[in-house]
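Q: Given only this backbone (396 positions), what sequence would you predict?
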């Protein structure tokens, strides 16, 4: 019955008057926060979300949502499953609790595999907000926004960031709810609602479960194997009345790759996989690292018209998961812009996050991380992969 609660969301439209343009300078608007409103929690294992500090933070976030009539939720650019699901889960929770508010999600380049996430058709590509509004970034920080979302964020009167990645450098006056231990941003949202005893509808829960499923590789990542992760999985499955398996089936069903993408990935699998043996004398065996390079010329040659999100889903992630059982570490180097490589690293056993942080915009999680680097640096990156001492993931 989750369709019925979607109907409540029809009031989401914020853009009305195109004649009013926001001020020209970026980020110079005075924020409405008192300094005591600035809440910054980094929850380490010693600080549980249920502690007073975290409960206060949750209250502060929900109070700020409550006092703003217009709210724009901003997933990071090239949104993955967790970014879209946390945005739509939050949208759904806000609309269910505050039906009169104008709430919108702003994003583009969304993979068709996300077509079954409740509220997906409500996402707007562009908007011209009028008056004061609250902007909430989910699953990323200011630095990961698209140009359009950055513009909207900069003009916001109030700002919140909810994320589970390291290195969120928020400025003064921005409320942040950061939990680096969380498996997904949707897991933070569930904790937020739970802490405040706000009921979670099936609709909201389905969104939250989707982000948890995609960010844990459907619970194949090492971080997602402990009893805490299992308890969270069960709690969300119960609320959503479906399993993570159901969620991944839906994601795959909506995710039929084009003939061109299939041709490209077959070509890459045959011709572009480079094996690097990482020489670490302290270990008995060499680590097997598989690297794949995808250039803009490849996309042109195979006549790929898909959005980055679909290339990522159907080509990059496909190749990464196919190499899972043949390697210790997998790396895709994708020429995102002319001369600029976007690297995605995966490993089930080794910490790839630490390696990624050595580079520009590097970060992520122990088993899934990424960074940017100029294409001209590719040989240096491959050499670095060969000689770097990867450490095993230490999961507590
Ligand atoms: Mn995430």
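A: Predicted residues:
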């Amino acid at each position: 019955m989750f369709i019925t609660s979607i109907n409540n969301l029809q009031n989401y439209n914020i853009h009305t008057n195109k004649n009013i343009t926001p001020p020209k300078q970026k980020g110079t608007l005075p924020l409405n926060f008192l300094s005591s409103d600035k809440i910054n929690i980094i929850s380490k294992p010693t600080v549980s979300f249920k502690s007073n500090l975290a409960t206060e933070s949750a209250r502060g976030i929900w109070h700020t949502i409550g006092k703003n009539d217009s709210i724009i939720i901003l997933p990071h650019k090239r949104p993955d499953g967790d970014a879209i699901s946390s945005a739509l889960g939050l949208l759904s929770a806000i609309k269910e609790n505050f039906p009169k508010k104008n709430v919108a999600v702003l994003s583009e380049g969304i993979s068709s595999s996300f077509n079954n996430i409740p509220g997906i058709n409500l996402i707007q590509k562009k908007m011209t907000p009028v008056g004061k509004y609250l902007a909430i970034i989910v699953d990323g920080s200011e630095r990961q926004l698209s140009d359009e979302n950055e513009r909207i964020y900069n003009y916001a009167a109030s700002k919140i960031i909810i994320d589970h990645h390291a290195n969120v450098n928020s400025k003064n006056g921005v409320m942040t709810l950061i939990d680096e231990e969380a498996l997904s941003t949707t897991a933070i949202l569930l904790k937020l609602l739970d802490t405040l005893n706000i009921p979670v509808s099936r609709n909201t829960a389905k969104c939250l479960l989707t982000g948890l499923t995609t960010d844990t590789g459907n619970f194949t990542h090492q971080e997602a194997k402990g009893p805490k992760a299992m308890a969270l999985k069960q709690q969300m499955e119960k609320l959503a009345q479906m399993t993570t398996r159901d969620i991944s089936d839906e994601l795959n069903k909506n995710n039929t790759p084009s003939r061109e993408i299939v041709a490209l990935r077959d070509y890459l699998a045959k011709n572009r996989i480079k094996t690097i043996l990482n020489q670490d004398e302290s270990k008995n065996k060499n680590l097997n690292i598989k690297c794949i390079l995808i250039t803009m010329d490849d996309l042109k040659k195979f006549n790929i018209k898909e959005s980055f999100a679909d290339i990522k889903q159907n080509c990059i992630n496909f190749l990464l998961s196919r190499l899972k059982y043949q390697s210790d570490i997998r790396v895709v180097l994708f020429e995102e812009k002319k001369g600029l490589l976007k690297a995605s690293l995966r490993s089930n056993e080794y910490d790839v996050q630490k390696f990624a942080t050595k580079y520009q915009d590097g970060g992520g999680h122990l088993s899934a991380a990424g960074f940017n680097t100029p294409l001209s640096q590719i040989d240096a990156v491959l050499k670095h992969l060969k000689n770097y001492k990867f450490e095993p993931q230490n999961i507590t």
